[in-house]
Amino acid sequence: MQADPFNRNCGSRKVLDRIGDRWSVLIVLTLAGGDKRYGELAERVDGISQKMLTQTLRGLERDGIVTRTVHASVPPRVDYALTDLGRSLLDLVAGLEAWATTHLVEVEAARARYDARG
């Protein structure tokens, strides 16, 4: 069977859901700079709740995009890092970030025009 993300039952749609999620994109971009602890991720990704950060990290780990390493220390230290598969996403998500920042003014102007139509 060929992957078809337009088919709701195809696993490729779940992959798109994971990598297209705003929190996943921001976490992958944050991990592009190297391993991070949970607190560092929470601090960098403004607005993400602890619950959502935990859920997103678990999903990324399940999908093989992120690794979670627990270090035997007191208190326990947990680091998150991109896998090779996760690093293969960097150009894609960096492109999304670049597009969003480059075209922010245009998008905001379009929103204002749309909202003004009443």
From TrEMBL:
<dbReference type="InterPro" id="IPR002577">
    <property type="entry name" value="HTH_HxlR"/>
</dbReference>
<keyword id="KW-0804">Transcription</keyword>
<keyword id="KW-0805">Transcription regulation</keyword>
<dbReference type="InterPro" id="IPR036390">
    <property type="entry name" value="WH_DNA-bd_sf"/>
</dbReference>
<keyword id="KW-0238">DNA-binding</keyword>
<protein>
    <submittedName>
        <fullName>Transcriptional regulator, HxlR family</fullName>
    </submittedName>
</protein>
<feature type="domain" description="HTH hxlR-type">
    <location>
        <begin position="10"/>
        <end position="108"/>
    </location>
</feature>
<dbReference type="Pfam" id="PF01638">
    <property type="entry name" value="HxlR"/>
</dbReference>
<dbReference type="GO" id="GO:0003677">
    <property type="term" value="F:DNA binding"/>
</dbReference>
<dbReference type="InterPro" id="IPR036388">
    <property type="entry name" value="WH-like_DNA-bd_sf"/>
</dbReference>
